[in-house]
Amino acid sequence: MELTNNDFTRLKNYMYNNYGINLEKKRTLIETRLALVVRRLGFESFKDYTDSLMKDKTGEYASVLVEKLTTNFTYFMREEMHYDFLRDQVFIPGLKKTPIGGLKIWSAASSTGEEAYCIAMLASSVFGRSAKLKVSILASDISSGVLKHAKTGIYSNDKISKLPQLWVKNYFKQLNDSSYVVVDDIKNLVEFKYFNLNDNLGWYNGKYDVIFCRNVMIYFDNPTKQKLSQKLYESLKPGGYLIIGMSENLSNLQTDFERVKPSVYRKRL
To answer: Which residues belong to any copy of the CheR-type methyltransferase domain (predicted)?
Structure first.
């Protein structure tokens, strides 16, 4: 199945205009990842698929497209130093003085939920039974497919291999030889919802103490990164932290963030 220049342009523009994702140099990725999906959905060409995508009001085709063209590879305790920072600089100080309404954490590209649940388990390990009163965690993503997976809380052995054994014992139930499920006490600390970071609506100024937005900006061009970083800055409380991927930085953007350490930034007080 051939991806014509016109089909490529239409799909590329759709992803950029709706999600801010830059696929300018990803033609081969589009062709290889979508060909089987297009056939499975019963279309005979990329043109027919793209025509239906543009007309679809349910969001079903868009969800499949986003899921196939973005990488959802993740696991518990990925980039572990970020959780060390969250524990030492946010949660442990929160034992002495917690903001009114509790600490608010946003996992802004939560994928299949490992990041959000890891934050929840960390909160439970620090605050114990009072974690529900001390911390609230919002987890969002643009793929309804990965959010559906996240809500189940079911993960394979390899996904949890980096977790402390005590956490596996306390925060999971073993389903079978190859999979575990997150316990309800941890699930109840996390709210999952659909959210498109490219949208202008649905943002809340000065709401969050910490925002995790890791390995997201790799998909964006500089104008989109600039726009997103400003929205994230405005969404943080004064003194709040933005945590991005270890391979990312804000050095080529104009922002008011203070750099704390590699991949960790702070909103000015």
So the answer is: 1-269
